[in-house]
Amino acid sequence: MAEALRDALLATPAFGQWVDAVEIAGPGFLNIRLKPAAKQQVVREVLAAPADFGHQPSNGKRVLVEFVSANPTGPLHVGHGRRGALGDAICNLYATRGWDVWREFYYNDAGVQIETLARSTQMRAGASSRATPSGPRPPTTATTSRTSRTTSSPARP
Question: Which residues contact residue 105 at a Cβ distance below 8 angstroms, ignoring those fewer than 6 apart?
Answer without folding.
Answer: 66, 67, 68, 69, 84, 149, 150, 151
